[in-house]
Amino acid sequence: MRIYPVFLSHAGCRQRCVFCNQRAAERIKPWKESIEEAFHYIQKSNLVYDEIAFYGGTPTSSENLLKDILQPFQTFLKIGKIKGIRISTRPDEINESIIQILVDYGVSTVEIGVESFSDEVLRLSKRGHTEEDVKRAHELLKGRFREVFQLMVGLPGETDRHREETISKTVSLKPWGVRYFPTLVLRGTELQKMYESGTYQPLSMEEALYWSRRAYESFMAAGIAVLQIGLHSSEFLSEELVAGPYCGNFGELVRGVM
Ligand code: SF4
Q1: Spatial CA neighbour of 95 closest among 119, 129, 126
Q2: DSSP state letters, 89-120
Q3: Which residue range or ranges hold the Radical SAM core domain (predicted)?
Q4: Residue (of 131, 215, 155) closest to 180 by Cα position
Q5: How far is the centre of ligand 1, averaged over its atoms, from the C-alpha of 163 (Å)?
Q6: Distance of CA 39 from the midpoint of ligand 1 (Å)
Q7: Residue with the nearest Cα to atom 6 of ligand 1?
Q8: Which atom of ligand 1 is closest in space to residue 15's alpha carbon?
């Protein structure tokens, strides 16, 4: 699948999650520049893209922001140069009028940052949404888009029971796909301060592999597509990593043992 990724930095975010790396946001271009760059690149390219994918930020936090992001690519959709649009956003920023814009502008895949089904874990992670928001967003998205849950394991305050629940509740809601990420401590995050003050301890590699394998097995058995396990290796990530269960082939280690 040929995907053109566009990173939107923190466009539309009203808060800052404890694990979100601000230095990354500073390195990524302002979202308008990223949109212009993507537009010119696709215009000049001879390739056909299966999807243009917008990652990061909260593009659905305002109707105007969402339209500004999607509008430039409508012409490529019409002439078949891109076949679909993917956006990634927060569950509490999805409502009927946002859904209508997503439909009108040809969005085919919507990824939502669920992270955990525990309200306490979400609160300690400063996510600013609840389990109820996830269920409400799911009701609005299901059957209309390819819906992807982004999930994390090893968040602050999380116990094994929370980890089990996040897997089992995902299986019962049955989104089209999932991404599953062990939490990493990155530079410039609130999580780094929590880690250095001793109030947060990341999962060990053994624990991260155990839960990721368990999640992978459960999702596959339920017919849910597993799009990604663990962050992809990159020069940027190795520079920013403070602590946590990371290795370049984490996903392969998880899938390889099945
Ligand atoms: S919603 Fe996403 S981009 Fe915005 S602060 Fe949280 S993790 Fe970062």
Answers
A1: 129
A2: E-GGG--HHHHHHHHHTTEEEEEEEEE-S-HH
A3: 1-230
A4: 215
A5: 21
A6: 24
A7: 17
A8: 5
Residue 142 has pLDDT above 50, yes or no: yes
Any residues with CB less than 8 A from the CB of 168 and at least 6 apart, and which?
218
Q: What's the mean per-residue pLDDT of the chain?
A: 94
In angstroms, rounded to a whole number, what is the distance separating the alpha carbons of residues 235 and 141?
Answer: 35
Q: Which atom of ligand 1 is nearest to the CA of 57?
A: 3
Question: Which residue has tokens 């300690």?
Answer: 124
Q: Ligand 1 pocket check: which of 18, 20, 65, 129 to mutate, most ligand atoms within 8 Å of Cβ?
A: 20
What fold does the segment set 3-256 form as a domain?
TIM Barrel (3.20.20)
Angle at Cα 161 formed by Cα 160 and Cα 167, nearest 5°? 90
Q: Whose CA is nearest to atom 8 of ligand 1?
A: 20
pLDDT over 60 at 258, yes or no: no
CB atoms within 10 A of CB 215: 24
pTM for the full predicted model: 0.95
Specify whether the CB–CB gap between 14 and 58 falls below 8 A.
Answer: yes
Structure token digits, residue 199: 């109030």
For residue 140, give both structure tokens: 């609005």
Query: Does residue 156 contact residue 120 with C-beta atoms inside 8 Å?
Result: no
Q: Which of 7, 17, 127 to mutate to test the pocket of ligand 1 (most atoms within 8 A of CB)?
A: 17
Residue matched to tokens 């699948």: 1
Nearest-CA residue for ligand 1 atom 5 is: 16
